[in-house]
Amino acid sequence: TQNYRITLLPGDGIGPEIMAVAVDVLKVAGKKFDIQFEFQEALIGGAAIDATGEPLPSATLDTCRNSDAVLLAAIGGYKWDSLPSNLRPEAGLLGLRAGLGLFANLRPAKILPQLIDASTLKREVVEGVDIMVVRELTGGIYFGKPKGIFATETGEKRGVNTMVYTESEIDRIGRVAFEAARKRSGKLCSVDKANVLEVSQLWRDRITQLSQEYPDIELSHLYVDNAAMQLVRAPKQFDTIVTGNLFGDILSDAAAMLTGSIGMLPSASLGAEGPGVFEPVHGSAPDIAGQDKANPLAQVLSAAMMLRYGLNEPKAADSIEQAVLQVLEQGDRTGDIISPGKNLLGCRAMGNALIVA
Amino acid sequence: TQNYRITLLPGDGIGPEIMAVAVDVLKVAGKKFDIQFEFQEALIGGAAIDATGEPLPSATLDTCRNSDAVLLAAIGGYKWDSLPSNLRPEAGLLGLRAGLGLFANLRPAKILPQLIDASTLKREVVEGVDIMVVRELTGGIYFGKPKGIFATETGEKRGVNTMVYTESEIDRIGRVAFEAARKRSGKLCSVDKANVLEVSQLWRDRITQLSQEYPDIELSHLYVDNAAMQLVRAPKQFDTIVTGNLFGDILSDAAAMLTGSIGMLPSASLGAEGPGVFEPVHGSAPDIAGQDKANPLAQVLSAAMMLRYGLNEPKAADSIEQAVLQVLEQGDRTGDIISPGKNLLGCRAMGNALIVA
Ligand SMILES: CC(C)[C@H](C(=O)O)[C@@H](O)C(=O)O
Ligand SMILES: CC(C)[C@H](C(=O)O)[C@@H](O)C(=O)O
C-alpha cells in the first residue's frame, strides 16, 4: 500500500462542495489502486480571514509543507473585496505559491468532444484543440520590486510594479516547458514582448539558448499580442506554450475559454521539490455557493493531475479521467454545461455518478 | 476651402501600396467636401533604417510635428529583425508615439455584417459586436524606468522593466475614455490587475474617482485575465474599454481578432494637442508586399478616422466609411476576406472600386 498525506484547502464559495466530491473520487481510486490517503484540512482565503484575520495562516503553510500534495478548491468572494490587498484572499494564494516555491504552473486547455458545442468558437476551429500553457508562477511582475504606491516630488501618487526575470528563473521554467513539450507533440511556443521589453529579450535569448539542449523540440516565439490573437484565430496551431507570470495569467484564461467550459479545467503548480498544489482554473462562484449546483469536474480533474504530476500515480489518474469522460459520455451534466437532451445533475449527484462510473 | 497638411508615413512591406489607395480616396473625399490636402511624405521603420540608419530620423518627427495629422501605414519585416532593439522598426513607432505625446490610442473592433462569417466565433456570439478599446499609449511598462538587462551580484543577468502610472496619466486617459463612452452607449469597462499590482490599484482608484464627474456613464472593472476570457465568452457585453499600455496591446488585438478580419481595422493615436497618428491595426505583411494583393480597407478606414478624430471633418469621414461598406455590399473582396461567390480584387482594383462607390 502506498500512503500519501494530502492537504485539502477547500477555501471559499463552492470550494467545500466540490472538494467533497473530489475526496470521494480519490478514495474510490485509492481502493482500486491500493493507495491510502491521509487527508488533513487547512484554512485559506476568505475562510481563513474570517477565522484568523489572515488569508494564509502560518499553520496552513506548515500543514502544506508537511504533506505530499495539496488539493486546493477556490478562494475569494465579494465579502472580502474591500479589504486592503495584503489581507485579501488572493494574497493567500500568492503567499502559498511563494511559500512552497511553486514556480511552474501547468494549465491544460483541452476540448472534450462531448462538450465541443459549449465553445463560442466554431466547431471546425476548436475541434481537437489540446494546449498546455506552462506559466512561470513565482517571478515576473507578480513579485518584482520595487512595487507600491509612492508620492512623487510634485505630490501626486505614482503606482509602480517591476517585471523581473533572472537567467536562472527563465532556465528553470524553460526546462519544465521543454520536458512537457517532449511528452506531448514536441512543439513549444514561447511568448514574450521582446520587441518592447528588455526582460522579454532576456527571456527570448535564454529560451533560444536552452533549445540547443532539446534538439527534438520545435521551438517558436510569438509576441504576446499576437499570441492572444492567434489563440482566437487558429488555436490548433498551439501545443505547449511557455511564458511569464502575467502573460501566462492572461493567455491561460483566454485558452481556457476557448473550450467554453471553464468548469472543466484543472491546473497544477509545481516546485523543484516538496508538495505541488492542484486546483481548478475557475473561481469560487459565491453566487451559487451552498446550492448543490456547482460543477465538481475541474476539481476532480485537479485531483487526477495531483495523482499524475504530484504523486506519480498515472494509473489512478487515468482512471479518474476515464470516469469523467464516461459520465459526460452518458449525458450527465451540471447546470453550467447543460444542453438539450442531457441529464441535469447537482454537484453531489455528479459525484455519485463519477463513483459508479 | 479647408486646407490640411498631412504627413504620410508609408513605412514597410505593403505600406506603400495601401497608402496609395488611401491617398486617392482622401483626394476624392476632399473634392466632395471642399477640403484641400497637402501631402508630405517621410521615412519611418525599415525604410528609414535602410536610408538613414535610424528607424525614426529627426527630420521625420519634425515633418510630423509640422502637420495637421499623420497617416501611417505599417512598419517592420524579417529583414530588420536581427538588429539591436533600439535600431529596429518598432523603436521608430515607439519614438513617434512618445515624440508626439500620443497618449490615447483608440482601437475600434466592430463586426461588419458583410464579413461576419470571417469570424472564428459563432455568428450569434459576435453579431453586433462593436467595441472601442481606449489604450494608454505613452506610459506603463512600455516606457517605465528602470529598464534594461543588468548583472546581478552572482554574475547572472537580470531583465527589468517597470510598469508605472501617475495619477495625472491615469486621469488624462480616463477622461478620453469617459468621453468616448459618452459618445457611444454610455458603458465603460476599466481593465486592470488590481488584485495583484499596486499600479493597478492606483489605476482603479483614480478611474473610480473620475467616474463621479461622469454620472451618466456606467463604469465597471475587470481583471485583465477575466477580460481576456470575457472577450472570447461574450464579447457583446463590452462597449468602451479603457486600460493601460500593455493590457491594451493584448486586449485590443484579441478584440480585433473577434472580427476575423484584421485587414479591416483602423486605429487613432491622439495627444493633448498637435497632430494625431492614424494607422491600421495590421502589420506590414512582407510576404505579400509588392504583389498588389494587400487589403487597403484598414488603411482607408484609418484615413476616415483621421478625418473624424484628427481634423474634425465628420462628413468626409462618413462618406469614406460609406464607400467601404458599399464595396463590401457589392461583393468586392481582397484575398484575405474572400469567400465563395464574391469578387476577388487586388489592392489597386479595390481602391478604384472605392473611388467610384
Ligand atoms: C487570483 C489571482 C491572484 C490569480 C493570479 O493572477 O495568478 C488567478 O487569476 C490565477 O490565475 O490563478
Ligand atoms: C509594434 C509594437 C511595438 C506595437 C506595440 O506593442 O504597441 C504594436 O503591437 C501595436 O500594438 O501597435
Automatic annotation (TrEMBL), chains A, B:
Residues where substrate binds: 97, 107, 135, 225
Chain sites annotated for binding NAD(+):
77-90, 283-295
Annotated Pfam families: Iso_dh (PF00180)
The yes or no answer to whether the keyword Oxidoreductase is present is yes
- Write down the InterPro entries for this protein, in alphabetical order: IsoCit/isopropylmalate_DH_CS, IsoPropMal-DH-like_dom, Isopropylmalate_DH
Q: Where exactly is the site Important for catalysis?
A: 142, 193
- Source organism, top-level taxon: Bacteria
Catalytic reaction equation(s): (2R,3S)-3-isopropylmalate + NAD(+) = 4-methyl-2-oxopentanoate + CO2 + NADH
Q: Which PROSITE patterns match?
A: IDH_IMDH (PS00470)
Name the positions where Mg(2+) binds.
225, 249, 253
**Subcellular location, in the record's words?**
Cytoplasm
Give, as one word, the top-level EC class.
Answer: oxidoreductase
**Any idea of its EC number?**
1.1.1.85
The family this protein is said to belong to: Belongs to the isocitrate and isopropylmalate dehydrogenases family. LeuB type 1 subfamily.
Please describe the quaternary structure of this protein.
Homodimer.
What job does the chain carry out? Catalyzes the oxidation of 3-carboxy-2-hydroxy-4-methylpentanoate (3-isopropylmalate) to 3-carboxy-4-methyl-2-oxopentanoate. The product decarboxylates to 4-methyl-2 oxopentanoate.
Protein name, entry field? 3-isopropylmalate dehydrogenase
Q: Which organism is it from?
A: Nostoc punctiforme FACHB-252
